[in-house]
Design brief:
This protein is an alpha+beta fold. The chain has two domains: 95 residues; 189 residues, SPRY domain (Jelly Rolls, Sandwich). Helices cover 29% and strands 33% of the residues. It has an eight-stranded antiparallel beta sheet with strand order 4-2-3-15-6-11-12-13, with no helix packed on it. Strands 1-5-14-7-8-9-10 form a seven-stranded antiparallel beta sheet, with no helix packed on it. A hairpin with a 2-residue loop joins strand 8 and strand 9. Helix 1 runs antiparallel to helix 2.
Length: 299
């Protein structure tokens, strides 16, 4: 004979099971929503940097037409204006989505005053290039870097800050690279070490791409000690082109900097026990302009 207690137990079990299923469904929906948000942002980011390069191309055509005094009812100017408006709308979408995703970022710009004489920066200070382009600001700046071939960011990172940095690197190898030739560098340096070498690896924390063996590899270096070497990013031969995206998570509170792939979110390498007792300057470098056409775009 089934007791009252058995009936209650079965009913409670049924209720708990239904609640468990409902919680599982909600959890699944939230997970899916989170992944959809991340994927949406990745799609927007991808569209954003593709449109940035398209805008540069249209701006170049407009520049050539202006030089030749070709107006054609200002059609090129209209296209450029439309693209610019679209980029503004994309930035608004990205800033909204970032509030709910791991890609929340600070509005960092390049400090054009620190521009080295071999690199160029756009008027909006979001694009750095090792080759000239229309409307570019050419180095040296008012307070130029002398040894470090690049530029400083306009913000430093202190012990009390936590924020993230997103950027794109695009390169075209025009001449096969030689051993240890570099393409780009991102370094975090104390003020006294910002201009000691052409890159930051020996005196700072550096993530850079260099030719090793037959391919280009991503390296993380701290005070002349290599912490990480990636699998091949691409060949280092003439004709190779590539676009890379990075998301850098910076925590002065925890003393950590984590490098991630921008579109996949996959961690590349995490560096711990970083000294934030002094503000760290963010450095961006581009190299070997005779062999590589390269640019860094902040997004």
């Amino acid at each position: 004979m089934i007791s009252y207690r058995d009936v209650i137990s079965v009913l409670l079990f049924g209720i708990v099971y239904l609640l468990y299923q409902e919680i599982s469904d909600i959890s699944t929906e939230l997970t899916v929503k989170k992944e959809e948000e991340k994927q949406l942002l990745r799609n927007v980011v991808d569209l954003r940097y593709r449109m940035s390069f398209l805008t540069d191309d249209v701006q170049y055509v407009k520049f050539i037409n202006d030089q030749k005094k070709i107006t054609n009812e200002n059609s090129i100017g209209n296209i450029y204006g439309t693209l610019t408006s679209a980029l503004v709308q994309l930035d608004l979408i990205m800033s909204h989505i970032r509030k709910e995703t791991y890609l929340f970022t600070n509005s960092t710009l390049f400090d054009s005053a620190t521009l080295h004489g071999e690199v160029y920066v756009s008027e909006n200070r979001k694009l750095l290039s090792n080759t000239d382009f229309p409307s570019a600001l050419q180095g040296p700046g008012l307070k130029p870097l002398i040894k470090y071939i690049g530029v400083k960011a306009d913000k430093t990172v202190s012990r009390q800050e936590e924020w993230r940095l997103n950027f794109i690197v695009k390169y075209n190898i025009t001449k096969t690279l030689e051993e240890r030739d570099m393409i780009f560098d991102l370094s975090f340096c104390k003020e006294n070490n910002t201009d000691n070498l052409h890159y930051g690896g020996m005196y700072c924390l550096s993530m850079h791409a260099a030719h090793i063996g037959e391919n280009l590899h991503l390296l993380v270096e701290k005070f002349n000690h290599y912490l990480h070497r990636s699998t091949a990013l691409s060949p280092s031969t003439q004709g190779t082109t590539a676009t890379l995206g990075f998301n850098v998570l910076i925590s002065g509170l925890n003393g950590t900097i984590v490098f991630r792939d921008l579109l996949s979110g996959k961690e590349i390498f995490a560096v711990k026990s970083i000294d934030f007792s002094e503000p760290l300057f963010i450095m961006f470098g581009l190299y070997n302009k005779k062999s590589v056409q390269s640019m860094i775009s902040l997004i």
